[in-house]
Design goal:
12 helices, mainly alpha
């Protein structure tokens, strides 16, 4: 059973306030830039905003006088934390869920276009990049998030709550953290979701909740490996970028991920519900 180290002096309120302040200021600047004639600074500000969690985590670690927190943080970044038997799940589970959702969509009458590779519009922030370049950008951006989220955020919440409440609270905060991205014109993903309407926006946030439980579970099962969270987050974002995922397919994917998260919680009740 996962127990947060009670000797480590985590301050979740300070961390999340600092994270939201940095990201919101940066991304609302990106919102302003996105409506200007020149978009040269748009992508840099989007990327800087993604670094909010990591910047907040490093700031909190620098301010602490507890050296054990630095040791714990450094150890959780080591590849040796990852269990070899978990590697297929880490890299293949979410892409497999996406492919299954597309396959089910075919049974619902959608075209085979879902299995073709997507090409981002040229006016989007990543639109002029090739697939490999987009992959590296996604790895980098997910690293900027997860070094903060699992490096400090999850641990800080777990020092106050059980793992179920930690996951619920984090999923809610993670959803709120994405809100400014919906208003960035010519951004990447959230603006597209927003344009699809209310239902798809709800589907997006519901999917974030399921992903939170799945990534948190894999994170803990791999000795609190931050790298596991980075890889799973990367595979999630890259799978969405790789395929043409229709609105109906997103709903099917949401259901699949919800079922998977429910199975994980049901099978590992001790992890999630015991203090």
């Amino acid at each position: 059973m996962y127990q947060a180290n009670q000797t480590l002096n985590y301050k979740p309120i300070n961390f999340f306030l600092l994270t939201f302040l940095f990201t919101y200021v940066t991304w609302f600047i990106a919102v302003y830039i996105s409506y200007q004639p020149s978009l040269e600074l748009l992508f840099p500000f989007i990327l800087i905003g993604m670094a909010g969690p990591s910047i907040a985590a490093l700031f909190m670690l620098i301010r602490t006088k507890n050296k054990n927190m630095w040791v714990d943080f450094y150890q959780r970044l080591q590849p040796s934390k990852i269990r070899i038997t978990f590697i297929p799940f880490i890299f293949l589970f979410i892409p497999f869920m996406v492919i299954c959702a597309i396959a089910v969509s075919l049974l619902l009458g959608l075209s085979t276009k879902g299995f073709s590779f997507a090409q981002l519009p040229s006016d989007q922030a990543l639109g002029n990049m090739g697939l490999i370049a987009i992959l590296f950008v996604i790895i980098f951006s997910c690293s900027l998030e997860e070094i903060g989220w699992r490096g400090y955020g999850i641990e800080s919440l777990k020092s106050k709550f059980n793992f179920w409440n930690t996951s619920i609270i984090f999923a809610f905060l993670w959803s709120l953290w994405h809100v400014p991205a919906f208003f960035i014109r010519n951004g990447y993903f959230q603006q597209e979701v927003w344009q699809l309407g209310f239902v798809q926006t709800i589907v997006y946030f519901a999917t974030l909740f399921s992903l939170t439980f799945l990534i948190n579970w894999a994170y803990v099962k791999n000795n609190r490996s931050i790298l596991v969270a980075i890889f799973m987050h990367t595979m999630s974002n890259f799978s969405v970028a790789l395929f043409h995922i229709e609105p109906v397919t997103k709903i099917v994917l949401m259901i699949f991920l919800f079922i998977a998260a429910a199975i994980v919680v049901t099978k590992d009740k001790e992890l999630f519900f015991k203090n």
